[in-house]
Design a protein that fits this description.
The structure is a single chain. The chain is mainly beta. Helices cover about 0% and strands about 25% of the residues. It is built from no helices and two strands. The protein has a two-stranded antiparallel ribbon. The radius of gyration is 7 Å and the shape is elongated.
């Protein structure tokens, strides 16, 4: 799943700025 841009939670639990690929 491709998340939108912004602060998002990746599987590691770290906030990431950009696109999160799940």
């Amino acid at each position: 799943m491709v998340c939108a841009f912004g602060f998002i939670k990746n599987p590691s639990g770290q906030p990431t700025l950009g696109i999160d690929l799940r």
